[in-house]
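In this supplementary section we document a worked example of the pipeline. Step one takes a protein sequence of length 298 as its only input; no multiple sequence alignment statistics are reported here. Step two produces a three-dimensional model, which step three serialises into structure tokens for compact storage. The input and output of this example are shown verbatim.
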Amino acid sequence: MNRREAIRLLGSASARVLFRDVAKATRSLATIQGKDVTPSLAPGAPTSPERIALIDAFQKESEGIENAFEARTHKSEWTMPYRLFRPAASSKMPLVLYLHGSGGLGDDNQKQMGFGNVFGTRVWALPQNQKAFPCYVVAPQTDRGWVHYDLSQQTAGPAKVLPGLGDGSRMALEIVDALRREFSVDESRIYVTGQSMGGAGAWNVLSYRPQFFAAAVICCGSVSLDDGTGSAETPLWAFHGDSDKTVPVSVSRDRVAARRKAGGQPLYTEYAGVDHEVWRWTFTEPQLVRWVFSQRRS
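The serialised model returned by step three reads:
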């Protein structure tokens, strides 16, 4: 199977899987002993003018920040390109791992920073966020997805998902480990975030590197065999649009429900009327960055 065919199958995997129907729900908020613990959200309905203004302002304010990420490569079984943002501070700093969606697939070391990925990569590097919460940001790029896909069979349908740590996820973790050795990284404050295909990757690394990440932020994670219970004690905030036509909202609902049943206390925000590009709302939530960096691994 050539790379083009693999990418075609990966790009269609989440969109063409059928999920069981579930009762339609409104925005669900995590609770602990009946008390709402979700940080306050931006005012206004998701499609309101004030909410759209936040998204537009972010796009304008973040223009050019991608140029502050240096291009690097990690060589292992194959070469994985990645981008790295370094904080100005020299003391031990947190690190954020970002896993891109299918629009970032490739090996040009560029697409994982563009398209819909601009929100999840740039938000941590905004000047005001670096001033308050300086951190490293690493954005690797995969050409074969994050979870474990069976690419040995060339079929017309979506690639089959297999159990285990995905090849892309494993390489991403190798990069994080290499950066831990190279730089002064705060081991108690390493975070993971991802969207769509990258959201599935985030669920995957939580399952196969338990108790490693201090927190996770996952946007509309696509289908995989990871049911949401991996490293259940790790703080997690999941987001999904209830009108998502690519990854049905039931996928996140089921994972969050399973995580709570396993003893976890994940936060879950569901945006009414929002389709697949939920990251536009997620990464412009005013309290998101503060919530992430308030989490520490004990």
